[in-house]
Design goal:
Elements lengths: L2 H21 L5 H24 L3 H19 L6 H18 L1 H23 L2 H7 L2 H8 L4 H4 L6 H22 L5 H23 L3 H34 L6 H33 L6 H28 L20
Helix pairs in contact: 1-2, 1-3, 2-3, 4-12, 4-13, 5-10, 5-11, 9-10, 9-11, 9-12, 10-11, 11-12, 11-13, 12-13
Length: 335
């Protein structure tokens, strides 16, 4: 394509579009229709130039012109409380539901890994000796030891805030690092399961596994589920780089990335709930069965939330992505 000839043929349309945009709201009905038509044609021109004869200066000018026109056509949209409600009742649960084929296997395999590590440590005294000296192990596992006092070592409010911050950071790492071909996510998961497995192994070797599970389960069910969801989403994001499906790699990654950002916000709320449980319920004087029952109820509520609200929203077409008018326009590739 001869770029100079192409520019000469269409420059008048671009100038006319620029003129209409500068007039803002003072357009007649016919001029508004003309603006929409010129926006669509200019978007096509930009795509043709980018694919056949890219010129940096011209591409920059047309990109800016198309962006201004798109803003004028679609209007400026402000978030409202209705958007928050829609996100909590449809967008977030639908995104979790749609990624269930990633986070459920992640949860099952990770739990099995923690159990195997716990069994291995609990049945091999030499491994325990490599972890810490005998006196230190007794200090950890004895009644009133560090595993028990950990949950009451700080005021409940500040402890809950600290736990929430740490867990939210771990979930955010899983989501953000997924784009690096999954490997960092697997490492974060392994470290979490290793810590859990060490606790299981040491407390079981001391004959106090029931005490350990009574301390972990009230908050751990919901907390670990949130981490598994984040890890599964991160793995899905990483796999998108390998297999983008019917979309271009850039488009597929953008779609999954936008959904992951929403997941990060939603999971922060879920982890806030688990942090409150860990700060106020786990170290409380409630009997073990009551504390575990609260944890089971919180986990069940989350799963119902995902499978009922999320399943319904997913079947209605919700994917956890932003609205269509807020996404980057997919430009046509032919004039």
């Amino acid at each position: 394509m001869d770029l100079d000839v192409y520019v000469t043929a269409h420059r008048a349309e671009w100038d006319r579009l620029d003129h209409l945009l500068k007039r803002g709201r003072r357009l007649t009905g016919a001029e508004a229709d003309e603006l929409v038509a010129l926006y669509q044609r200019t978007a096509t021109h930009l795509s043709v130039i980018q694919s056949t004869a890219p010129d940096p200066a011209l591409t920059a000018r047309l990109t800016q012109l198309v962006a201004r026109a798109r803003s004028a056509v679609t209007g400026t949209r402000r978030s409202t409380w209705r958007d928050v409600v829609r996100f909590l009742t449809a967008g977030f649960p639908a995104a979790v539901y749609r990624s269930r084929h990633w986070w459920i296997p992640t949860a099952v395999l990770s739990t099995l890994l923690a159990a195997v590590i716990g069994w291995w440590i609990g049945t091999h005294p030499e491994i325990q000796a490599a972890i810490a000296a005998p006196d230190e192990l007794r200090q950890l596992t004895r009644p009133g030891g560090e595993y028990e006092t950990y949950y009451s070592s700080h005021p409940a409010g500040s402890f809950a805030a600290q736990v929430w911050t740490n867990n939210a950071r771990a979930a955010a790492l899983c989501l953000a690092l997924g784009a690096f071909l999954c490997f960092p996510v697997l490492w974060v998961l392994f470290i979490n399961m290793l810590n859990l497995g060490v606790g299981i192994g040491l407390m079981s070797s001391a004959g106090r596994l029931d005490t350990f599970l009574g301390l972990v389960l009230p908050h751990g069910l919901l907390e670990l589920t949130a981490v598994f969801v984040a890890a599964g989403t991160g793995l899905r994001l990483g796999w998108t780089l390998i297999d983008p499906g019917p979309y271009s790699r850039r488009t597929a990654l953008a779609r999954q990335g936008r959904a992951a950002i929403g997941m990060a916000i939603g999971l922060a709320l879920v982890l806030f709930v688990s942090g409150v449980i860990e700060g106020f319920v786990t170290p409380s004087g409630l009997p073990t069965w009551a504390r575990v029952a609260i944890g089971v109820a919180a986990e069940a509520a989350f799963l119902v939330y995902v499978y009922v609200l999320g399943g319904r929203a997913s079947r209605a077409g919700e994917a956890g992505d932003v609205d269509a008018d807020q996404r980057s326009t997919e430009l046509p590739t032919a004039a």
